[in-house]
Amino acid sequence: MPELPEVETIARKLRPHLLGKTITDAELRWPRTLALPSSRKFKAAIKGQEIKEVTRRAKFFILHLSDFSLLIHLRMSGDLLIKDSKIGPEKHDRLILRLLSAEGDRSNLVFNDTRKFGRVWLTADPEEVLGRLGPEPLSKRFTPAWLYAGLHNKHRQLKPLLLDQTFLAGLGNIYTDESLHLARLNPLATSDSITVKQAEALHEAIRTVLKEGIRRNGASFDWVYRGGEFQNYFRVYDRAGKPCPVCGTTIERILVGQRSTHFCPKCQTLP
Ligand SMILES: [Zn+2]
What we know:
Layout: H1 4-18, E1 22-28, E2 34-36, H2 39-46, E3 51-57, E4 60-65, E5 69-73, E6 78-84, E7 93-100, E8 106-113, E9 119-123, H3 127-130, H4 144-152, H5 158-163, H6 173-182, H7 196-215, E10 252-256, E11 259-263
Parallel strand pairs: 2-9
Antiparallel strand pairs: 1-7, 3-4, 4-5, 5-9, 6-8, 7-8, 10-11
Zinc ion (ZN) binds next to loops.
């Protein structure tokens, strides 16, 4: 599942192909892809909208249009592609936006999603979708003091808490496991048992791991996104049975809240 670095990579890659283009029409090929509004309202509202900016918030890809925001969550298998306007739809294409440049060139933005979990929202008020999200880990709002206070405000295991998008936005299974290993924290540790120094280490680790992920164009791993290379630099994720890069101990895989979790039992002891 694409996480913050993968969605950021997609936004950066697509931005130059989208900025300033006008959406002339939309073809919704799988109606349930659209979470908001109705397909009739969607088609009427999106026609003629110009793409003013392309950004990301948490794991949401966002097109800022003249009057609306178009939010896309890729979920398990979603992908976004720019295609020639003459290329017909493929089997798993769920939404096609027809684009026109100021020079008169036509292209399509295609949302392809094999497993159909991806969702699209068109709204004048993106906060109605994004409002409950926690802070961006690469923003100034995310500080060691904020993290320490947030961890102590809860009494939960670290792994599920870090995956909770209302606590902190953008982390998924890969970057959570990598961050906890770098910070030498056990995924089962209770959040309010974390010391100030450990919270500082975790803050630093989360930012380091996410920045490295972005620098390597994300991870090409168990989903359709291809082109990233962070999967070649995993410390623990998907490395059960292999040696820890720090101490050589065999990395273990356990289930935490039904999520596959990888850690080094020597570097990441429970307090
Ligand atoms: Zn180790």
